[in-house]
Write a structure and sequence with these properties.
Strand content of chain A: under 5%
Order of helices and strands of chain A: HHHEEHHHHHHHHHHHHHHHHHHH
Number of helices of chain A: 22
Radius of gyration of chain B: 17 Å
Number of strands of chain B: 0
Order of helices and strands of chain B: HHH
Structural class of chain A: mainly alpha
Largest sheet of chain B: none
Largest sheet of chain A: 2 strands, antiparallel
Helix content of chain A: over 70%
Strand content of chain B: under 5%
Radius of gyration of chain A: 22 Å
Structural class of chain B: mainly alpha
Distance between the termini of chain A: 10 Å
Number of strands of chain A: 2
Helix content of chain B: over 70%
Shape of chain A: globular
Oligomer: heterodimer
Strand order of the largest sheet of chain A: 1-2
Chain lengths: 522, 101
């Protein structure tokens, strides 16, 4: 059997987006190797170009009816396409905002982009992985590259410490996850494919073992999405790592975690739906309360965003727990706009720290007089994160809470509403600091603010990224309908979600069993 | 031999790993504890694949992947540890307290 025939039998074309990213990262590595320091002019743009091509490949696959590749180990259904698009976009914006930052720190840019692209490949495969070994390898590809990125400033003890903490906690949580996975393999009588595991588990009666496996799996997943009480690493890692890396971790890595949670919990644990919904409700309430309340006390901008991202993960979980068509769609929609508002915020923080060298909130005082662009961008992004209409974040939260209310999750929605109000307070505090202060109340750093120029290499792309994300944050709010329709379509066309919705009876859909069964063996 | 004995051994090894993870102050020992946990998983997989899945031996393949990834993780872990040792001259976990609120 020749290679082309084999590839078509395995539907290998479905991993084209990942393939493009892998080729791009090899290209970046080789160009960096040949050209040395001169390559810094080229490599970021190769990376961005490759990611754009990958995004194009994802868009091209949208209407593809065949979604199973590699005998069912990888499924490229619309849900995974949306998650992969989010991860690719976040990697792209991260490269754009990191060029100047990495060059200024004196470390190699080519290697940074290579590791970042590896991390995004890991996240992309994880979004579509449908089999235990694939899930594990993709998860570890994402995690190990993230540890390396976290410790990228290797002469900075804070970056070292963040990397070590992230590595130790991350490795132990993936060991826990793996233990749960090995139990699943045994309980299902030797299956590694998610659908087959679910079938075999339903046939046998293994409730206690299944509960133990569920606990371990949830521990691993909750670490990735940094839900309280698995969040302890988040603030430390966010504070110590290079800021562009934090931007990627808070969006790309988190989206991959949600992709894993959605696919694995819904497919493998239909027998324990009530139990895992209950655990996730607890995690969501704890995340929203603790994340938003501790954020009030922060003095560093990066730590503030760390706690805010913990709280935001709690909001997103409402959509997952609602388990309705609207719920899943609003989860996707919120992650999509979270991408823009969070990365926009990080672009502003990076720009401010490039010009002044600090991340302290008090140093932002009176910035409006010196740098209106950062002030405007950061204010819009923070207000959107807080959920002020008519910005995108408001509509995202509206959809999430609406879906939660419809599904009868009254406690969760009320806690969400209450903590949103708290979150508005600390976001507005930063905005007030920048805008309202009189000229004599300016911080020292802002008084000595350098003249605003965009001439240095790498700043242009940062400017482009900042403007694009801020414009997206503002406009998606008003144009939310088409985006939400897209999210609903992707939920409706995803076989395993369709099956789940039909089972829970929220939506009577005729389901074709072949749609989720693995592709025909060779 | 019964399957249960292997599972008990794996569970015991996993618990020793967790204990080491929680109590060790030396970062190298923490890394070693994580290796113990991963090896407990390998034992589990080998036992299951031997007793339940002797035809397809998916568990054995899985174990090979786990070993490979564990090696990569240990390499990255030691590299980070080396970097931190150069900057701080210690691998004591309680000395790493630059980051906290």
């Amino acid at each position: 059997m020749d290679v082309a025939n084999l590839a078509s039998q395995l539907n290998a074309g479905l991993i084209l987006p990942e393939g493009i990213v892998i080729i791009t990262l090899l290209l970046v590595l080789v160009v960096d190797l040949i050209q040395g320091r001169k390559a810094n002019r080229v490599t970021p743009y190769i990376g961005i170009g490759g990611l754009l091509a990958s995004l194009g490949a994802i868009a091209f696959q949208w209407d593809n009816p065949v979604s199973n590749a590699f005998l069912g180990s990888f499924s490229s259904d619309p849900l995974s396409l949306v998650f992969r698009a989010i991860i690719v976009l976040s990697a792209m914006v991260t490269i754009m905002i990191s060029i100047r930052y990495v060059e200024q720190s004196g470390t190699s840019l080519g290697e940074f982009i290579t590791i970042l692209l590896t991390a995004s490949v890991g996240g992309m495969v994880l979004s579509g992985a449908n089999e235990l070994v694939t899930i594990f390898v993709a998860l570890e590809t994402l995690s190990i590259s993230s540890y390396l990125l976290t410790g990228y400033m290797k002469r900075d003890p804070r970056s070292n410490e963040a990397a070590l903490k992230y590595l130790l906690i991350g490795a132990s949580s993936s060991a826990l996850f793996l233990y749960g996975v090995s139990l699943l393999y045994g309980l299902s009588g030797g299956q590694t494919e998610l659908v087959a595991i679910a079938t075999n588990l339903a046939a046998s009666d293994q409730s206690l073992g299944l509960v133990i496996a569920l606990v371990f799996v949830i521990a691993g997943v909750a670490f990735k999405i940094s839900a309280v009480p698995f969040h302890q690493w988040t603030p430390d890692v966010y504070e110590g790592s290079p800021t562009p890396v934090v931007a990627f971790l808070s969006v790309g890595s988190k989206a991959a975690g949600f992709a894993l949670a959605t696919r694995m919990l819904i497919t493998v644990f239909p027998l324990l739906t009530d139990e895992w919904h209950f655990v996730f409700t607890a995690l969501a309430i704890l995340s929203m309360v603790l994340g938003n309340i501790v954020a009030l006390a922060q003095t560093s901008m990066k730590r503030l965003l760390a706690y805010s991202s913990i709280g935001q993960a709690g909001f997103v979980m409402i959509g997952l727990i609602a388990a309705t068509e609207v719920g899943y769609a609003s989860m996707l929609f919120y992650l999509f706009i979270y991408l823009f508002m969070n990365l926009g915020g990080f672009a502003c923080i990076i720009l401010f720290s490039l010009r002044t060298g600090t991340d302290q909130i008090s140093e932002y005082a009176g910035l409006y007089q010196k740098d209106p662009l950062i002030t405007l961008g950061l204010s819009l992004c923070l207000l959107s994160l807080g959920g002020i209409p008519p910005l995108a974040g408001f509509f995202g939260k509206l959809y999430l809470f609406w879906a939660g209310w419809q599904a009868g999750l009254y406690t969760l929605v009320l806690v969400g509403l209450f903590t949103s109000v708290i979150s508005i307070y600390y976001y507005i505090r930063v905005v007030k600091m920048m805008v309202v202060k009189e000229p004599q109340e300016m911080s020292e750093v802002v008084k000595n603010y350098p003249k605003v120029t965009w001439d240095l290499p790498g700043l242009k792309s940062l400017q482009v990224a900042l403007v694009l994300t801020v414009v997206a944050t503002t406009l998606i709010g008003i144009l939310s309908n088409p985006v939400f329709t897209l999210a609903t379509d992707s939920v409706n066309n995803t076989p395993f979600l369709k099956l789940d919705l039909a089972r829970t009876g929220t939506q009577p859909v005729a389901v074709l069993p072949e749609a989720i069964a693995p592709a025909n063996p060779l | 031999m019964q399957l249960q004995y292997f599972l008990l051994l794996a569970a015991a090894l996993f618990c020793i790993g967790v204990y080491g993870l929680v109590t060790s102050r030396n970062a190298v020992r923490v890394l070693m504890s994580i290796e113990l946990m991963l090896n407990a998983v390998n034992l589990n997989l080998m036992a299951f694949s031997n007793y339940l899945d002797p035809a397809m031996i998916k568990g054995q393949i899985f174990a090979v992947f786990v070993i490979t990834v564990a090696a990569a993780e240990a390499a990255v872990g030691l590299a980070i540890l080396l970097a931190i040792y150069r900057n701080r001259d210690t691998v004591d976990m309680e000395q790493f307290n630059l980051l906290k609120w």
